[in-house]
What we know:
The protein has 251 residues and is α+β, with helices and mostly antiparallel strands. The protein has 5 helices and 6 strands; from the N terminus they run ααβαβββββαα.
Amino acid sequence: MYSSVGLAPGHIAWLFMAESCVYAVLGVVAGYLTGQITATVLIELGLVTGFTLNYSSLSAVLSCILVMAVVMLSTVYPSRKASELAVPDVTRRWRLPVPDGDRWHFEFPFTVSGHDVLGLCVFLIGYFDSYSEESIGTFYTDGAKLGRQDTAKGDGYTIDMNIWLAPFDLGVSQHVVIRALPVGEHNIFQVQLDITRLSGEDASWRRVNQRFMNVIRKQFLIWRTVDSDAKSSYRDQGSAILAGEQVAVEA
């Protein structure tokens, strides 16, 4: 479930550890307060005589630390197994493949349903267009264009644009085509990227694209948090754009 919303294996493991830490703290606090209340009741009832209770003694502190440590240690193995089950493959982290000369072609590690694919494309266009008026941030674009692509498995969609990547003094620019293409079953679309280097040194081009890919990945994760009404609005805008209408897409 965690991997389906885009969490990396390491994030899943730490999520388990964070949950265990919360339970450990709550358990220690609840146990400490329960012990104090119980001791107070016993003293008031006269069931404990001749004893002086020290709630801040070193033994009480060490007992709390021991309980928290046991809870945390008991989560190490489950968190590790959960991270391994999230990505059964040997590769634990997605990496960019090696480009073929000045061209990069690879499949992005996300899929989208046919019901949402057009809305996702419009959502991404709105995001890219927000970087078309000023050269600040991770990149600058001259505007993204939505298109349709015919395939043997059905209609797909494309986002076409030119991008200049920060830091801009490196002079790295590229032509980017994001393709959402049907896989042919279960109404699922895969996302492919075609990147062609236009200017800038090859080493700089490869390095700054890693950050650009992280930016796109975050937008895919944000899309999964968009409510159904907004997704429906994006789909309607996409249909209007493909029909030739002039539509102002908002990020």
